[in-house]
Design goal:
The protein has 101 residues and is α+β, with helices and mostly antiparallel strands. It is built from two helices and six strands; from the N terminus they run H-E-E-E-H-E-E-E.
């Protein structure tokens, strides 16, 4: 198994494209789990709803923000479907239409 390390702060906010060079969204959230004592990213969240997911804990506590219709587009990308070989230009290894939202 090949493991790569990347600086999270450099990846957040990067535009991610699919195999057809279609924009999927910005990388906004990373879901990690402890595997064999190591913290490992298991899923990436892309798109406008992912950004709101990241900052949503704060906004959901404010009463007026609950009535605003926020964007619903959120793409969930398994760790093995995101190509980070060029961290400045991350790519999804499948078509946008194949991603779970």
């Amino acid at each position: 198994m090949i493991f790569h390390e990347a600086h999270v702060e450099r990846l957040l906010g990067k535009k991610v494209r699919d195999v057809n060079d279609e924009l999927v969204g910005r990388l906004e959230e990373m879901i990690a789990e402890v595997v064999d004592g190591e913290l490992v990213v298991v899923e990436y969240h892309l798109g406008p709803a992912a950004m709101l997911e990241r900052i949503g804990g704060f906004f959901s506590a404010l009463p007026y923000f609950r009535i605003i219709p926020f964007p619903k587009r959120l793409y969930r990308v398994p760790w093995d479907k995101l190509d980070l070989s060029d961290p400045m230009r991350p790519r999804v290894r499948c078509a946008k239409s194949e991603l779970r939202s």
